Amino acid sequence: MQNIWKNISNLGINEAGNQLSRRTIVLANQLNFVMLISMFLLLVTTIVTQGITHMVVSIGTLRVAWTLLLSFLNLLIARYGLINLSRLSLIFLPSIVFLLVPTLIGYVQEEDFTYYPYVVIGTSIIPQMLVHPNKEKFLYWFSLSYLFLLTIFIDRIMVLLGKPGMVEPGMNSYPVVDRINTFYPFYKIAQIGLFLFINASIYYLRRLNFRFEDELKNKNNALDLQNIELKAQKDEIERQKDELISKEISTWQKLVNIITHEIVNSAIPITNLAGMTAQMLEDESGVVQKPKKIGEDVIEDIHHSLRIIESRTKGLISFIKATKSLTDIPKPNLRKILLRDLFERISTLYKAKFKETGVKFEMEIVPTDLSIEADMELIEQVIINIFQNALEAMQETSTPRLLIIARINESDHVQISISDTGKGISDEVLERIFLPFYSTKANNSGIGLSLSQQIMMLHHARLEVSSAVNRGTTFIMIF
Predict the structure, then answer these.
(1) Structural domain of residue 400, as residue ranges?
(2) 474 domain-assigned
(3) What's the number of domains the chain is made of?
(4) Which of 110, 277, 298, 375 holds its CA 20 to 30 A away from the CA of 251?
(5) Nearest 5°: phi and psi at 214?
(6) In a domain? residue 241
(7) Residue-level pLDDT at 192
(8) Is the dihedral of CA 36, 39, 41, 47 positive or negative?
(9) What's CA 112's distance to the chain center, in Å?
(10) Is 248 contained in some domain?
């Protein structure tokens, strides 16, 4: 039964149609089907009753059969896609087939005067459900006007066309009509009031429904856009995640290559030199010579070789310690730091160096009492690393100038900018400048800026850099 109801409801539905039109088609099909089943049951009951009582088939029975046939035809034409025709037939024809046709041929029973108007009032709900009052204004108001006029005049039409003798031979009037005539204005006002109340209520509820549907549609559209944006963001995050993983793998590969290269470069000379030193102590057969057989020149060479081995070993130990420092940064001891005090400490530290190299140093703090929550020693180390790079970059500059400025940026964060007038950094180098052990300078470990960046990250701060070749470099610390 459920499948039958579903198939009947979807007769004539076009997938290309919008949600409102599909819903109207479903509702029209369901109303036709309910009317078909109701008329069928009523017809079966009437025929059985008339068969038992040996009554002849009346026009009332035929009226039920006509309405049943109309419902069946409406579903049939809906099946073949004539949706609008099926809908118009459902709006206008039931009242004509069930009420007007029997009345026009003179078939009126006494009780019809009472229930006919209320049948019309019930039928007036159908166009309310099947017609959109905003998009089909003419059809909407025409159908309601038609049913409203039918509600007002249906009893007068019955009185005009009815044949009283059909009920009881020889009678010229209906007793019920006589009783209704005594309070007819109130009787009709009640019907009109009921018609207006029901239809006004349905109209108001439908308008609310349309408004809520529009709001819901707008919200759904907004959510769809947000879902699209979130999906795009998710895809971008996944892409960045893959890129970060790739860069991380690449960084570790570079790190391993650098460490391997440094250790091998130090180990090979140490091994070779140790082997040569051992040979100096042996004779041609490989036996260790007696001390008195070793000449002074050989002793001096051995001593010199051991010093070189010591020096290279110390260099290797320093490199290992530098490597360890990248993963052994102490947890920051946060406290309030006046930037004026921090800058003066560093200025005092570099005063002699600035004088020696001819660097013009300037500092600016706005406002003068600007402060940050940080570890004084660690942040001082970051600035020292940046100063050191700046001094090396300005070695060949005719007018070296180093400027440090602290202020509140547009995002209400404390920003420290350190700018130099050095030779600048190329884009290729700029992309790798924070990589561990990456350096373009000879005898440089390449961990200063990487260490500085990690210190800033431990402070939940950022270290950024901008540069242009031959136009200087600016490092920005944002807290």
Answers:
(1) 335-478
(2) yes
(3) 2
(4) 375
(5) -65, -45
(6) no
(7) 92
(8) negative
(9) 62
(10) no
Q: Where are the alpha helices (DSSP H) in 57-124?
A: 59-79, 83-95, 101-104, 112-123
Contact 280, 301 (CB under 8 A): yes
> 199 is written with which tokens?
């239809």
| Angle (nearest 5°) at CA 368 between 365 and 371 | 85
The predicted-structure confidence for 232-248, as pLDDT tens digits, reads as follows: 998 899 888 888 877 77
**SS3 of 404, please?**
strand
Last residue of a domain, one of 182, 199, 223: 182
Length of the chain: 479
Query: Where are the strands (E) in 174-318, listed by range?
Result: none
Contact 391, 353 (CB under 8 A): yes
Are residues 337 and 422 in contact, defined by beta-carbon separation less than 8 angstroms?
Answer: no
DSSP E strands in 210-282: the ranges are none
Residue 222 placed within a domain: no
Q: Is 116 within 8 Å of 154 (Cβ atoms)?
A: yes
Q: Are 341 and 370 in contact (CB under 8 A)?
A: no
87 Cα distance to chain centroid: 41
**Residue entry with tokens 């009947």:** 8
Q: Which residue did the predictor score with more confidence, 218 or 447?
A: 218
Q: Could you tell me the CATH number of the domain that includes residue 434?
A: 3.30.565.10
pLDDT, tens digit (0-9, with 9 covering 90-100), for 270-303: 776 677 777 777 766 667 666 666 667 767 777 7
Last residue of a domain, one of 182, 217, 238: 182
